[in-house]
Specification:
By secondary structure, this protein is α+β, with helices and mostly antiparallel strands. The protein has one domain (5-104): ACT domain (Alpha-Beta Plaits). 33% of the residues lie in helices and 33% in strands. It is elongated, with a radius of gyration of 16 Å.
């Protein structure tokens, strides 16, 4: 088993805001290029909700010990995007790897 800590980000916005979201994301990337020393993008997927909003899911691999930096970066990105995109909603979560999760409960992870 490969132990990796993940960043899971879910973003929702009205579909009519799609072009604005796309432009804001490109603007964000120009000033904040990806930093693979703290997080690597695993995938970004786009779908729609039953309500007709656009739904974007992002999954990233967080490098060991870089959780704080990743949370700060994704919070800045969300604030940047939401400041000009009406109706944008986002939730980010850190999903601990198996070994780290066991450490939290004071145990060593079993070999599986």
């Amino acid at each position: 088993m490969v132990d990796i800590t993940l960043l899971l980000t879910r973003t929702y916005f009205p579909t009519k805001q799609g072009a604005k979201v796309g432009k804001k994301y490109i603007e964000w990337l120009k000033n904040n290029p990806p930093d693979n020393t703290i997080e690597k993008t695993v995938c970004i997927g786009v779908s729609s909700t039953e309500e007709g909003d656009t739904f974007v899911i992002g999954i990233g691999q967080i490098m060991k010990g870089k959780e704080q930096e990743v949370l700060e970066r994704i919070t800045r990105q969300t604030l940047f995007m939401a400041s000009e995109v009406e109706g944008l909603r986002s939730k980010s979560e850190i999903i601990l790897d198996f070994t780290e999760a066991y450490k939290i409960i004071g145990m060593d992870a079993p070999d599986v």
